[in-house]
Amino acid sequence: QVQLVESGGGSVQAGGSLRLSCAASGYTNNRYCMGWFRQAPGKEREGVAAIDSDGTTSYAESVQGRFTISKDNAKNTLEMNSLKPEDTAMYYCAAYRRVASVRAGTTCSRISDVYRYWGQGTQVTVSS
User: What is Dmax (Cα atoms) for the chain?
Assistant: First the structure.
């Protein structure tokens, strides 16, 4: 059973930076996509960034150029720079096992229904 634990949320002023980490356990030797989602009160969950086992990344347009996702074995990190008040949300780490036959360099999905494993979430608050 895959388990995901997020850390690193907090409060910051607009223009500041935060780093979120997600530690995964229970992985087998299969290929996994890991992603970050966020959800603000009254809004739909948004796929922010995703990364494949081979390091291929994808980002939502709203965070492109400001957020960077990276991974080191079973841990991934979301570096968030130039934060805006609209980035305020609960952030969730998630993962799904990817079919091994998918061609290398193919980006992972950022659709929440695809993800099977979820962390508990960590709050990010950006004040103006």
Answer: 46
Mind listing the pLDDT tens digit for each residue in 35-61? Answer: 999 999 999 999 999 999 889 999 999
Per-residue pLDDT averaged across 78-104, rounded?
Answer: 94
- Do 67 and 49 form a contact (C-beta atoms < 8 A)? yes
Question: Which residue carries 């950006």 as its tokens?
Answer: 126
> How is residue 53 written in tokens?
């086992």
Instruction: Give me the percent of the chain exceeding a pLDDT of 70.
Output: 99
Each residue of 3-16: b (16+ CB within 10 Å) or e? ebebebbeebeeee
The predicted pLDDT at position 29 comes to 67
Q: What average pLDDT does this structure show over 8-13?
A: 96
Give Cβ neighbours of residue 24 (< 8 Å, ≥ 6 apart).
2, 3, 4, 32, 34, 74, 75, 76, 93, 95
Distance of CA 99 to the CA centre of its chain: 20
> Rg of the Cα trace of the chain?
14
C-alpha atoms less than 13 angstroms from C-alpha of 10 in its C-beta half-sphere: 11
From 126, 128, 119, select the one nearest 10 (Cα to Cα).
126
